[in-house]
Amino acid sequence: MDLAITSLGVVSPFGVGRASWESALADPQGAMAAAFRSPSEVLDAEKLPGARTAEAWGFDPNEHLGKKGHRTFDRLTKFLIAAAKHALIEAGVKDADGAYVGDLGPERIGICSATAYGSLDAITELNLVAELEDPRFINPSRFPNTVINAAAGYVSIWEDLRAPNTTVVDGNCGALDAVLVAVTHLRQGRADAFLVGGGEVVSEPLYRALARLGVVARADGTGVTMGEGAAYLFVEPRAAAEARGATILASLRGYGTAFEPPPSEALLVHASADAVERASREALAEAGLEPSDVDVVAAATGGIEPIDAAELAGLRAVFGDDACIATPKALHGETFGAAGAFGLASGLAWIGGAPVAPCVQGSAPAAVRTVLVSSVGYYGNASAVLLRA
Amino acid sequence: MGRVFVTGIGVVSPLGLGVDTFGSALLEGREATAPVTGFDASGLDRDRACEVTDFRPREHLTAAEARRTGRCSAMAVAAARMAVEQSGLGDAIGGPRTAVILGTTMGEANVLGQLEARWIHEGEDSVPPAALPRYGSTLLPIHVARAVGARGIVQTLPAACAAGNYAIGYAADLIRSGRCDRAISGAAEVIEKLQYAGFARLGAIAPEHCQPFDKERRGLIVGEGAGVLLLESEESVVRRGATPLAEVGALGLACDAHHITRPHPEGAGSLVAVRAALAGSGLAAADVDYVNAHGTGTDANDKVEAMVMREVFGTQQPALTSIKSMIGHCMGAASAIEAVSCVLTLRDGVIPPTINHQELDPDCAGVDLVANEARRAPVKTLLNNSLAFGGYDAVLCLSQPEVLAAEAFA
After folding, report:
1. Full-model pTM
2. Chain-chain contact of A130 with B197 (C-beta, under 8 angstroms)
3. Hey, which residues does A231 pair with through a beta bridge?
4. Which domains, ranges and CATH numbers included, belong to chain A?
């Protein structure tokens, strides 16, 4: 695998566009302060007092989508469109006015987009109507948002992208698994380039579920801080990127994934160190690299102690006890299905010179060329992608 | 050694469980449509569906499995077990070189529906925390992987009504690219109140019957179930001396980028997808014996699909059927359950009928519809067509074993 990344479109607590992302990551302490805030702009402060989140603060869809045509879109759809638009322009396939330019046209560009809970808000909204009033009163214009591939479908419509559109739902591993989907589609010649990544939104039902499970962010800084946003990498075969003179930010060189069942039939939620280890080794093998070639590992550490501990054990089995393992979610929150895309975005920023922080072990390297991004699901799956300058 | 074979199939359908029951009901032209029993549909002005009425999880799952799965995953597990049993792989199905790739639209929608109903009516404190992780669209392949011992790639592709084709075609791609040796592929879906109400509010549900391509068609009938194809690399099949049921050709994909629920009026994406499936499988249009239509029975779908059939196949039309006339539109599971039917047609040489047919809609003229009675005809090569929410177009080529040119997959 040698796929060039020729742009990054991102919506995050730090703003919209790669520049906002990179300037925030250049100052990790400042980034943390900017991202993690209260009160929420999304959750109802009366119903959920004290909720602390990492939201796309002040996100204004009109600024990125124009004033018309997106009234019925949900928050996720708007994030994805804004990220896609920035990625397409920065990759040089669209000009600043939004017109396609050059030989790489929208009929040959597809989308591989991950989310874990992207339809939850819409389903809950309609369930409230159905349960408290009557199913016949649900608003049909809101119904499409209950279907989890709708958000990415709207991106294809908005940007006229006619190569395959694929939504991936693999819990926290979705955005890294979207890399495998893109690689596979490219190999079959179904497209010449893909927007690869995903999005997630801060949502009341998800917040309530995490709170009920006792894992939502606590005052002492432990627990899961719900983040949100969207990130798309524009990905194409290296030779094609070079031929069209695109700027190559880095390349995707290896992918690995594994599943291990829990030790007991009675368990459902669990993470497996063995799965993490196998996924990392597979990604390294595909890239033809050794663990010592990796400058930093972007761990999935998200604030659920047993899950984080299993991941760390798996990563240590591969990379040892001295390698630099960073926890980028400490800066931007847990974005679930989109987390792998944010991990890759962090890797790009580090390769570009941003300081690696915070680290749970090892010390930040002076320069970063190779990053392994790890994702860990809540049900035993784990995935890894190798990013190289 | 680039071929990918189907060595096992399993199905949980509105016409019964298991491929024998399902296959014979299809050839008899039986219809599963009946008043919906899973929830109160009064007030929606529509009340018919094709429900799976004879699925009892404990006949297929262990007690522990039945406790941790919702209905959607349970049906997927049952269908996967049937496929594994037919393949004769036994315990050899497991391990890190086995992938589980499943599609769906809403996954464990009824688990979520029940959780939310309890939260809404009885308050948050009444919801048991242990019940919460039982929701998640990602759970389908996880439950199936646990049931069969698979430890490789586990993925959910929620490609709405094209999800089965997406999952099966992509799983075959993964085998061809050497990322796994075997894959459990397919899709599952349950009928759930909210989504039924949504279809009803969109005006998509027929009052009585699904009548694909008929002049009097009034819409779709919602169905449910699970369909699974067990796929194996050529090397694996040869090594263990297995007899394949069918071969998987290419998956043709495109996106209309036109409308979130309606197909492109000229079938732009669908044409690209059909042609990609043919080209990727090394086939000309004239090589296709049969097309399993998406055939939902809605005005827009059937019109566009017939247009694409005329455009691609001209005057040499392959046989065309929509078994949705019998089992309804099983949404995410539709193209997977229909792929099971396709494998049976390749094996047995009988094409199931499109029932409830009275008069071909002039807008659908030019197709060779297998109307009302099954048709005996040797089928070497077929296309399984699907169009979906989101503007998705997905066409999967299936054939008898070793009919496709080996070079197509070299």
Report:
1. 0.98
2. yes
3. A10, A198
4. 3-250 (3.40.47.10), 253-388 (3.40.47.10)
